[in-house]
Amino acid sequence: MSVNRDTVDDGVVVHLPEADPKRQETVLRNVANLLRALGPDTVVELVTHGPGVELCTGETGLADTVADLQQRGVTVCACANTVAARQLAESDLLPGVTVVPSGIAHLVVRQRQGWSYLRP
Amino acid sequence: MSVNRDTVDDGVVVHLPEADPKRQETVLRNVANLLRALGPDTVVELVTHGPGVELCTGETGLADTVADLQQRGVTVCACANTVAARQLAESDLLPGVTVVPSGIAHLVVRQRQGWSYLRP
Amino acid sequence: MSVNRDTVDDGVVVHLPEADPKRQETVLRNVANLLRALGPDTVVELVTHGPGVELCTGETGLADTVADLQQRGVTVCACANTVAARQLAESDLLPGVTVVPSGIAHLVVRQRQGWSYLRP
Asked: In this complex, is the C-beta atom of C34 within 8 Å of any C-beta atom belonging to chain A?
């Protein structure tokens, strides 16, 4: 995706603050369903912070599903505050994960751009 | 309600993805409070998907409260993906339930129209 | 803060309906992170209702953190419906807590003004 997301006004941010693998799996399935329903060009960012960041380290065992969604254009974001608090290195994150300065603030920034918000 | 919801720009979508009867009861009470506070003409859609669809089958024992809210103009929606995955027939759903193609996508479609989003 | 919030169009409402102290602590930390990331002038209202109101009575042991956020301009709101249902007096609430007629409706009123919504 070479889309400049800062000019998109109809994207979707999906909020994932939890580490439970079952819940994370559900959220990833929700994102896949969203793309199927709204079309493959839908701009979606999955924003993890707090324990939710374990999606981005692969700790919850969902690396393959993450990679699949990324290949379909979904941006998977990890919160820099959480990354720092957990003393994670860039190399601890799955390939292609985008680090945003603050996960919670990013969810607001996107809504201010006009994006929809989902908390599955 | 003969309102064409596709032209409404100040409705409210309420997101219910969970099956726990206590939580579902709380969500239904929240919707009733919302109507009381914002006025009976407020357009509200309660969108269930995943385990949340058990509200729409009556499995969680809340059929009477659902009927009461419907009578007051609330649309109760079930996700077609979930309905298919659970092999439910139209006749398994409570009277008046609206099936939407994708629950998660519907929540985005409404926000894009200008509706507010609540995840109780 | 002498800001008239009814004219603000880029505030943030944060939704807290739960009483679990660990979750409440997380939500308060999220709000602090939000202010740090978006700047101290960001208008934030933390809206509690149902069991979430226990934040506002101090029952969950977070009075100091609440006071700290209030000092930084965050409005902490309790739902009047919940306050009445729990037979709370004004004096049962922490100093500076704002009582709104309906917590759930307030979240919609703010979104209609253009505010972002977070459900941590």
From this structure: yes
